[in-house]
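The authors assume throughout that readers already know how a fold can be written as discrete tokens. Each protein is reduced to its one-letter sequence and a matching series of backbone shape codes. I therefore recommend that a typical entry be quoted early in the introduction. For illustration, here is how one protein appears when written out as sequence plus structure tokens:
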Amino acid sequence: MLSLLTFPKGFGLFSMSPFCIKAAMMLELSGQPWQRSDMLDPTEMPHRKLPVLETPDGRIADSDGIRDWLEGQGADFDADLDSAARAHARAWVRLAEYHLGLHLLQMRWNDDAVWPEVRDQIFQPVPEPMREEISAPVRKEVQAGLHWQGLARFTEAERMHRLEQDLEPIAALASERPFLMGERITSADMSVAPFLISMLHTSDGSVVSKRLRDYKILCAYLSRVSETVPLP
């Protein structure tokens, strides 16, 4: 049986990591038997990241690598799409993982109002008196990365404007059809939905979470994805 090495449950979700949620969704849709194996410290893993899939061929790192391996075993997550639609689906994957992902990091690690709640979720196994001391260097490293990338340099209003520019086209498609690419779930949904779900459930006090709660079209879309691919 395949084993998905994943960050543990958190924020009421299958995993604290949207990339791990994506991997689990792909495994569910692939039809392959699999089980989860939780870990907190991925430093011994390839790329020092999760998810990682334990397979008969060895460890497969990264959600994209997992997708490639599963498709090599016969899965086709975009089976109904022509070449142009497959290209569009790939673009949605990249938007989710390289832009929505930055907004998720920003809200979790760089919002002082939200940070205590996030810290207590992610570092829950650390005894409370030591939690801030242990988490502070990790947070500082993530903050430095966000500043280097540039998102952390914008005002909240500027960041929300950029986020709205991503949410509007997602909502436009989700208002016309069940899923982003049509009647059936595809790779696009398996990247976009985990990031939006993670934003939605991170913190009631987050401006981003509140915006998504108020976005009824997107909430309905996320419910459809979750109902189509329920995770253990």
Summary: The mean pLDDT is 97. The first helix runs from residue 18 to 30. The radius of gyration is 18 Å. The chain has two domains: 2-72, 83-228.
